[in-house]
Design goal:
By secondary structure, the chain is an alpha+beta fold. It has one domain (5-185): Aminopeptidase, CATH 3.40.630.30. Helix content is 30%, strand content 31%. It has helices at 20-27, 34-37, 44-54, 110-125, 140-148, 179-185, and strands spanning 5-6, 10-13, 58-59, 64-65, 67-72, 78-88, 91-101, 130-136, 152-157, 172-178. An eight-stranded mixed β-sheet has the order 1-2-5-6-7-8-10-9, sandwiched between helices. A two-stranded antiparallel ribbon has the order 3-4. A hairpin with a 4-residue loop joins strand 3 and strand 4. The longest helix has 16 residues, at 110-125. The radius of gyration is 16 Å and the shape is globular. The two termini are 31 Å apart.
Length: 186
């Protein structure tokens, strides 16, 4: 499969079984997982049997995937992944944006660059009408990426999570960007 998207410094490509080690390293970094699992690692067996098998899912409305491995364009180094998937299998109207990057990639603008490139592609090539993203309210870094990518705060909400993690008492936040707002800002 050809690359899904390229930006100045990133390549977003389909996942392969060879990415198991990359995903295991990513999901076993306590800081990477801090706002997802409270820092608890994801077992390798879970990555092999549950995580990796769901990543190559093709969405009928696009005939392409919703999760992409991110690598540095010049070196090919694995940086993490991006999610840009429709809420509904057969409708590209509303998509969820997400990202998880290795700690070594933090603070270098990769998350914002990838998010902006996906948003641009979504609005110009994929019939997307609304991009949404969420994170824990206390995850200021992720919230900043959303804001720098053009998304605006919508609301704070509480989810029904099986296990509370530090900071979850402050709830989750939702951000969004509509096609009309994106076009107006251009």
């Amino acid at each position: 499969m050809v690359n899904f998207l390229e930006s100045d410094r990133l390549v977003l490509r389909a996942f392969t079984a060879a990415d198991t080690e990359h995903l295991a390293a990513l999901d076993n970094d306590p800081e990477v997982m801090r706002f997802l699992t409270g820092g608890r690692p994801t077992h390798r067996e879970t990555i092999e049997t549950r995580v990796l098998p769901r990543l190559p899912h093709d969405y009928p409305c696009w005939r392409t995937r919703g999760y992409w491995a991110a690598q540095e364009r010049t070196t090919g180094a694995f940086l993490g992944w991006f999610e840009f998937r429709p809420w509904e299998e057969h409708s590209p109207a509303v998509v969820e944006l997400g990202y998880r990057l290795r700690r070594a990639a933090w603070g270098r603008g990769y998350a914002t660059e990838g998010a902006r490139a996906l948003i641009h592609k979504g609005f110009t090539e994929m019939a997307v009408e609304r991009v949404t993203a969420n994170t824990m309210a206390v995850n200021t870094r992720s919230r900043r990426v959303m804001e720098k990518s053009g998304l605006s705060f919508v609301r704070t909400f509480t989810g029904d999570w099986p296990e509370a993690i530090e900071g979850s008492e402050h709830g989750e936040v939702e951000y969004e960007l509509t096609r009309s707002e994106w076009e107006r800002r251009r």
